[in-house]
């Protein structure tokens, strides 16, 4: 493990590609490597210890896209079709790797990630958050796979051709609607065959339990928290956590304040120790080998005390003050993610 950066960590979720697509579509690599507005860029990743993670390709809802067109961030309405957005963000990830001068790499295996960790190279795994850009015949899935796709969240909050995500008010149950369609069940089967990780984080309760029955892979929620502490519909109940533990899966803790706080508020004054509370609760429930980080940087409001990715050493210090020793901190930071990816992807 390279020690030229702070405690390295591997992260289960970020929305950097959306930020770059909206604001730096003409020069994403230049913006990323020089520094940009938001919670992530290459200089701050190095300062914070960000060694790699799952980089989400995300198609925003129609109302958001309309607002961004009015603000001038999107110039051409034809660029707003789900497939066009997904293709553009995948191209951005490839551009970040191609223009990195060896500083970043798209990873398709655990061996690739381990190489990056040893050599201080940013490890980027392509993740699809919401599969509405895929056809139900799954012909595009092969194309995306060839481009590096190794992780899929079939739904976001909205319904698509594969099923329904979690959509409900705080406080609330994750049981917010119908689960998977037949096409969604077929998607799970094909992802299992290809050993693509399937993300539970935006599945409603019916879809979650369908997934638990259908899939032969570890159950993984890349960026979710404990419903008992914060009853957001998208957080995980104790019964869901028990199923994740039984599958030897993993939960990546989301840093968004609305997923941390007992009152569900988007409040920057949320103490950084609230992240630690969820980490500790999950460790108690599912075991110290099944918990990691799933920051949701560039997608959520995080505690002011954390700020952005450069603030990660402050979170690690808070974990130490809470009694998390060096060995456990290393598991939470990256070892647990590599373990579950190896179990999911194979060697």
Describe what this molecule looks like in 3D:
With 347 residues, the protein is an alpha/beta fold. 41% of the residues lie in helices and 12% in strands. The chain has a single domain (9-345), classed as Metal-dependent hydrolases (TIM Barrel), CATH 3.20.20.140. The strands form two sheets. Strands 1, 2, 3, 4, 5 and 6 form a six-stranded parallel β-sheet that branches. Strands 7-8-9 form a three-stranded parallel β-sheet. The longest helix has 20 residues, at 326-345. It is globular and about 50 Å long. The two termini are 19 Å apart.
- Amount of beta strand: 5-15%
Task: Give me the Rg, rounded.
Answer: 18 Å
User: CATH homologous superfamily?
Assistant: Metal-dependent hydrolases
Instruction: Return the string of H and E elements.
Output: EHHHEHHEHEHEHEHEHEHEHH
Quaternary organization: single chain
Question: Would you state the CATH class?
Answer: Alpha Beta
What count of structural domains?
A: 1
Q: What is the averaged pLDDT score?
A: 95
| Main structural class | alpha/beta
Largest sheet: 6 strands, parallel
Total beta strands: 9
Broad shape: globular
Our count of helices gives 13
CATH architecture: Alpha-Beta Barrel
Termini distance? 19 Å
- Helix amount, in percent? 40-55%
- State the low-pLDDT regions, or none: none
What name does the CATH topology carry? Answer: TIM Barrel
Task: Give the structure's gist in a few sentences.
The protein has helices at 16-23, 28-34, 42-48, 62-71, 82-98, 110-119, 139-146, 182-194, 205-214, 238-246, 273-286, 312-321, 326-345; strands at 9-14, 50-58, 104-106, 122-129, 149-153, 197-198, 220-221, 250-253, 291-293. The protein has 347 residues and is an alpha/beta fold.
């Amino acid at each position: 493990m390279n020690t030229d950066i702070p405690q390295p960590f591997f992260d289960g979720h970020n929305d950097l590609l959306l930020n770059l697509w909206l604001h730096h579509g003409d020069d994403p690599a230049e913006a990323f490597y020089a520094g940009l507005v938001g919670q992530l860029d290459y200089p701050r990743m190095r300062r914070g210890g960000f060694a790699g993670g799952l980089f989400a390709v995300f198609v925003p809802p129609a109302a958001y896209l309309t607002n961004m067109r009015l603000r001038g961030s999107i110039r051409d309405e034809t660029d707003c079709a789900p497939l066009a957005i997904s293709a553009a963000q995948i191209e951005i990830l490839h551009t970040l790797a191609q223009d990195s001068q060896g500083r970043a790499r798209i990873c398709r295996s655990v061996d690739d990630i381990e190489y990056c960790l040893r050599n201080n190279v940013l490890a980027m795994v392509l993740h699809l958050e919401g599969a509405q850009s895929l056809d139900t015949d799954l012909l595009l899935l092969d194309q995306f796979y060839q481009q590096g796709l190794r992780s899929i969240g079939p739904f976001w909050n909205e319904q698509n051709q594969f099923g329904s995500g979690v959509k409900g008010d705080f406080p609330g149950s994750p049981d917010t609607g119908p689960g998977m369609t037949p096409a969604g069940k077929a998607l799970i089967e094909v992802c299992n065959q290809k050993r693509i990780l399937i993300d539970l984080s935006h599945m409603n309760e019916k879809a979650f339990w369908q997934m638990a029955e259908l899939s032969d892979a570890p159950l993984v929620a890349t960026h979710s928290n404990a419903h008992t502490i914060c009853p957001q519909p998208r957080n995980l109940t104790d019964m869901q956590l028990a199923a994740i533990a039984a599958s030897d899966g993993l939960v990546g803790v989301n840093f968004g304040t609305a997923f941390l706080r007992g009152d569900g508020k988007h409040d920057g004054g949320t103490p950084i120790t609230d992240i630690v509370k969820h980490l500790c609760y999950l460790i108690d429930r599912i075991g110290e080998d099944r918990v990691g980080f799933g920051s949701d940087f560039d997608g959520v409001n995080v505690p002011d005390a954390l700020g952005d990715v450069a603030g990660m050493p402050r979170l690690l210090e808070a974990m130490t003050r809470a009694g998390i020793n060096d060995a456990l901190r290393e598991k939470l930071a990256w070892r647990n993610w590599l373990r579950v990816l190896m179990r999911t992807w194979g060697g």
